[in-house]
Automatic annotation (TrEMBL):
Keyword Membrane: yes
Transmembrane region(s): 28-46, 86-108, 120-141, 206-227
Key words of the record: Membrane, Transmembrane, Transmembrane helix
Matches recorded under InterPro entries: Rhomboid_2
One Pfam family linked to the record: Rhomboid_2
Protein name: Rhomboid family intramembrane serine protease
Length: 242
């Protein structure tokens, strides 16, 4: 089979961009909402009010105890990164979480499983990893592995949910690419770590690893279900011929 030409690749890319809103309406709307939220908080709100909003929606222990619903859902309406400082590590995180995770992998999840299930995966990863991370923080505080200041730490954004769909998207790859992709998904949260505060990495790294684990577990469940369905379809004609 002939390799696709550059003009063919460009045509395919333009077609994918043109049909993106129709094929992935949930993802398209969510990306627009995140971009508008970033502009609003970063450019239109007064700095002190923007900081107060970020503090209010951070999913730290104090906020989860005081106003859990507002913190959990408010946190999912912003991303913690930059779109302008292209030489910073924050921009790299934005490319991975907002660009690759939400823009690409959530769109694939939506096309593969439908909008309601894609939303469930995103929210399940965001909320599930946040609550699991909170439990790890409580455990670590009891053992003196984290400082007490972690209770009020700033921790908002979409990266846990994005990490979950990044892991789930391993299903979209050929078999030879799945192990390198899994290594990338697990390695990038560790790339920016400095000195660990104790035997555990920083709690945000823990959260990203837990959200990846949720995504891989879901991918394994989907693959197992598909394999059982194919096996049942293969055995059904043989059983009917008996």
């Amino acid at each position: 089979m002939n390799a696709p030409t550059p003009s063919g690749l460009l045509t395919g890319l333009l077609r994918a961009v043109r049909t993106y809103p129709r094929r992935s309406p949930l993802t398209f709307g969510y990306v627009l909402l995140l971009l508008l939220g970033n502009v609003w908080v970063g450019n239109l709100l007064a700095p002190d009010r923007a900081d107060a909003l970020r503090d209010h929606i951070s999913t730290n222990l104090d906020n989860l105890h005081d106003h859990p619903v507002t913190a959990l859902f408010g946190s999912a309406l912003l991303f913690d990164g930059t779109l302008t400082e292209i030489l910073s590590t924050g921009f790299g995180g934005t490319l991975i979480t907002l660009g690759l995770g939400i823009g690409c992998c959530l769109a694939w999840t939506e096309r593969r499983f439908g909008s309601p299930r894609a939303a469930a995966v995103l929210l399940g990863g965001h909320i599930g990893a946040t609550l699991l991370t909170a439990a790890v923080i409580v455990f670590a505080l009891r053992h003196g592995w984290y400082p007490e200041s972690v209770r009020q730490a700033s921790d908002y954004g979409i990266s846990y949910g994005a990490q979950t769909v990044l892991a789930l998207a391993v299903l979209a790859l050929p078999r030879w690419a799945r192990l390198p992709w899994a290594a990338f998904v697990l390695a990038w949260p560790l790339s920016g770590d400095g000195e660990w505060p104790g035997p555990l990495p920083p709690f945000t790294t823990v959260g990203h690893l837990l959200s990846a684990a949720l995504g891989f577990a879901l991918a394994a469940a989907v693959a197992l279900t598909a394999a059982r369905r194919r096996r049942a379809e293969t055995l059904a004609p043989a059983a009917a011929d008996r």
